[in-house]
Amino acid sequence: MSIVLVHLYPRELGINGDIGNVMALRKRAEWRGLPLEVHDHEVGGELPASAHLVHIGSGPVSGQEAVRADLERITTTLRAWSSAGVPFLAIAGGWQLLGEEFVGLDGATLSGPGILPSRATLTTGRRVGEVVAESQLGEIAGFENHGATIDLLGDAQPFARVTYREGHGPADEGVIVGHRVGTNLHGPLLPMNPAWADWFLDAAAELAGVSPATPAPALAIVDERAAKSRAAIRGRLGA
Questions:
Q1: pLDDT in tens, 108-137
Q2: Phi, psi (rounded to 5 degrees) for 74
Q3: CA angle, 34 as apex, 28 and 14 as ends, to 5°?
Q4: Which DSSP category does 54 fall into?
Q5: Residue 110 β-bridge partners
Q6: Across-strand partners of 149?
Q7: Residue 79 domain boundaries
Q8: DSSP characters for 98-138?
Q9: CA distances from 6 to 33, 48, 145, 214 (A)
Q10: Is residue 91 within 8 Å of residue 125, measured between CB atoms?
Q11: What pLDDT sits at residue 140?
Q12: Residue 220 belongs to a domain with what CATH number?
C-alpha cells in the first residue's frame, strides 16, 4: 500500500515554485520510509480510484480559467475525498479555485466546489513580498504574490497570523479546516516549513494505513537549512 498524492494541474498551476511542495512531500516520504506515488492530474485526465493527499498550486487567471471546466467535472470526486478526510493543500490561485465562490474583476460570481470555505474576490492591486507568520505548528515563513482578497465563511479558521510582512501590517493568513489548508504563501511553503510537510504526510499515511520507518539523516540536515531560510526572511523583514 502506498500514499497516493494527487497533484492537480501541474502545467497550468505551478508558478512561484509551488511544484516544490510536491517535491518536498516526495523526498520527505522517502526519507521517512513512507511509500508514496504521485498522480499528476491534467485537463481531461482521469483521477485515481482513491487518494490520500491532494495538492493544487497557483497560477494566473488565464491558467485558472484553463482548468475551471475540468475542475467542475471532477468536483464530485474531490468533495467525496474531502468528506472522507483526505488532506488538501491549495496555494493562492488553487485556493481560489477550491473555494465556495470566486468573484471576478467584472463582478461576476462563479460557484466553486467548496472544498475550502472561502470566497475570493479579484482586485486590481497585488500583494507581493516575504511573510513571517505564526501557525499551530509554530513560526512559518514564505512569499506571497496574489491579486485577490479572500473572505473566510462559516466557522472557518485562519491558517496563520502574519506577524511581519513587506509593506503591510499583521493580518490573518489562509484557512484551515481539519486537514484542508488554503494559503497564499509560496516559498514554496513545504520545503521552507517542513513541519507542515510532515503534518500532511502523517495524515495521509494514517488514511493509507502505512507507518513510517526510522528517519534518514537527511531530514535533520534539510530541517536545519529550512530554519536558516526562515531566519533569513525574518532578518530581512527586521523581525
A1: 999 999 999 999 999 998 889 999 999 999
A2: -100, 5
A3: 45
A4: E
A5: 102
A6: 121
A7: 3-236
A8: HSSEEE-TTS-EEE---SS-EEEEEEEEEEEEEEEEEETTE
A9: 19, 8, 24, 25
A10: no
A11: 98
A12: 3.40.50.880
Output the nine-digit C-alpha cell for 219. 531530514
Grid coordinates of 152:
473566510
Helix and strand numbers, DSSP H then E, in the chain: 6, 12
**Total domains, the chain:** 1
Where do we find the cell 485515481?
48
Q: Region 151-171: what's the mean pLDDT?
A: 90
* 55 vs 166: which has the higher pLDDT: 55
What does the DSSP 8-state code read for residue 214?
Answer: S
**Angle at CA of residue 54, ends 112 and 68, nearest 5°:** 30
pTM over 0.90: yes
* pLDDT value for 167: 75
Quote the CA–CA distance of 107 and 105 in Å, as a whole number. Answer: 5
Taking alpha carbons only, the member of 6, 156, 16 closest to residue 87 is 6
State mean pLDDT over 97-118: 95
Please give the angle made by the CA atoms of 59, 133 and 158, to the nearest 5 degrees. 70
Q: What is the C-alpha separation between 219 and 239, in angstroms, rounded?
A: 27
CA dist 218 to 137, 223, 224, Å? Answer: 21, 8, 10
C-alpha cell belonging to residue 129: 513580498
Distances (CA, A) of 65 to 9, 42, 60, 180, 209: 12, 14, 9, 23, 36
Q: What is the pLDDT of residues 83-94, one digit of tens each?
A: 999 999 999 999
Please say if the pLDDT value at position 239 is more than 90.
Answer: no
Segment 6-20, tens digit of pLDDT: 999 999 998 888 999
